[in-house]
Amino acid sequence: xxxxxxxxxxxxxxxxxxxxxxxxxxxxxxxxxxxxxxxxxxxxxxxxxxxxxxxxxxxxxxxxxxxxxxxxxxxxxxxxxxxxxxxxxxxxxxxxxxxxxxxxxxxxxxxxxxxxxxxxxxxxxxxxxxxxxxxxxxxxxxxxxxxxxxxxxxxxxxxxxxxxxxxxxxxxxxxxxxxxxxxxxxxxxxxxxxxxxxxxxxxxxxxxxxxxxxxxxxxxxxxxxxxxxxxxxxxxxxxxxxxxxxxxxxxxx
Length: 253
Known about the structure:
CATH topology: Rossmann fold
Number of domains: 1
Order of helices and strands: EHEHEEHEHEEHEHEHEH
Largest sheet: 7 strands, parallel
CATH class: Alpha Beta
């Protein structure tokens, strides 16, 4: 794992976007297409804005997949991750395909199988992920399932995760936050050729410390990224503040 620390989340976002654009362009040149998994949430704003503004990327050769979605949320809901991705990526750059998770599908387990089957058609070139305040990776809250090989799971959201969604302003009250979600599994994320993990803000500092400074543990789900040799963790000064490993990391900007 490479760790890079930046003064601001704007600088972080631009650096991560530059790497993401390079990986996508290289995949298109090599294989004629790129297959990409993308996260959502407030932590990804600067990164995704910089990525879609990148000049010269051939988005007509990019196939994209949805990392996670709330169960029971229609696309019209302000917190819908489908809505987020349509507005922030699809409507702006028009990729060749975007395989969304329908959180309001009548059978969430069947929806896991449907999109999971599409995911298995070919290797994933790059995954864009974040780290939750409780250390979750995608919606794999602690203790995460590190063993399953299923591409997507229906998971229960813990209170810390639900409070984060409330605190970010996606819902009016805690009772409004769904208790279940569809999430890509940890092992599926690790099958990506490269992982770019974008984590700004002081509220993530404790989770970053637990991810980097301790052992790999289901109690700190994002710690599993330590096992992937082509993962780059993009931090700002605030999110890096509590981690000893981040304080001595190379590649600091």
